[in-house]
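Appendix B. Raw example, untouched.
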Amino acid sequence: MLAGRRRRAGTRLGVQSGGHAGARLGLRPGAWRGARPGGRGRAHRRRRRADRGYTVVEVIVAVGVIGVLMTGMAVYFVFSGSVTSYQGQVQVAAQLASDAMERVRAVRSGRLVTGRDEASVRSQYAIRPPAVADRLHESTTELVWDSGAVAGAGASAALPTSPRSVTVAGVQYTQHWYLGRCWRLGDTGGCDVANKTAPGSLEFLRVVTASSWRSRECAGGTCAFATSTLVSPARAEPMFVYPIPAAVWVNRTTDGVNPAALWIATSDLVISGLVHSNADLLIDGSDMVVGPRIEYGTRYTLDLWDARLPTPVRVPPSTPEVRDIAAYRPGGSAAVAAGTGYWTPPASACSSGTYAMNSAPPVGTTIIYVPCALNLNVNTTALVVAEGVITISRSRIYVGDPGNPKATGIISASNAARAVVVSGADGRIYGNIQAVNGGVALLGSWAIYQCGVMAHTVEIRGSDTTIRTDYTCG
């Protein structure tokens, strides 16, 4: 009877045999068990434990670990910054030492010692830094001075015995010039005093330039970078000593043109070599690399962005060695020496005042002489000389011999404001561009000028231009 009552109650709840009440409620069998009060309580407690966060001990341990890591990283970054700063200072010092060497090249070899008195030379030698002592030592070099100079005159010599101060990026550097002499056997081997009495030995001046600055990175708190070269004091230089001409030389001595005697207004410019103006200079532009030395005679103006230039140095006016155009005129010494390599167009070619050269000169031509203005529209490996204005307006015009640029280039005798104009893009000029009576305008982009330019005035306005000079130009 009791069993029957239970079956009837189950029927009223909708529970059949083998089932349970959850089936009537639409729940899965497992879900019915999970809905028990005990299961819900455990999940609730787990959620409460997850919301409690970290203990004070855990926070202290985490902070300690981070502190240890950050201390190590701080030491690394401080050391890295110190090394980076020092390497930057070394690079500046190297550039200044090279800049000092350019001053040496600007002085004739016979005048390098002039004005350097004995007392000043000995005092300078006594306090030379270790970097200089390695290159200028009594075992290899004999001190040299101007016996006619009065005591103390060395400070104002062409290569002064007293240092010159230069400040770059807040760091003060000093440039130094040291001179000694040594003897060399032939064009090989070392140069030292042991060869002084040897038959056939050649005397040389050993020139050491250095740049020093204060830094804790070096022993004694003073760092130095030095470089050296050998220069013959004789009038005839040995074949293994190469005088290097300036990359840009402006001969005008008064201001008020262009808007400056040397006017550079461009971007992506590279000039490798001495830049000199006897008057003023204006450099305006971006993405420039110029050096190692810039000289001016009266004043300078820099308006730059993202450029690497040495600080311009004021110097007295000077006159460079130039090629005499008279030697290239018919009957001149260079014209006669060229023989069959000398070529000039017929007189009728200049009837309009300007000769348009649209065809290549005869094979074997080494000198082209034009007695009027010239529009050059063809490639040539010869030296180009003209009495009038020389214009190159076409793109990809190549002038000069890349294998012997010192014998080629462009010479204009014109006194026009633009005696030489290069406006064509992607050109190549191998050899010095000379217009000592007039101006030179380099206006074409993507151009390369090997052996530089020398003129009364110069304007450089072509972008992506490279002007360089090296021993092949001497």
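End of appendix B.
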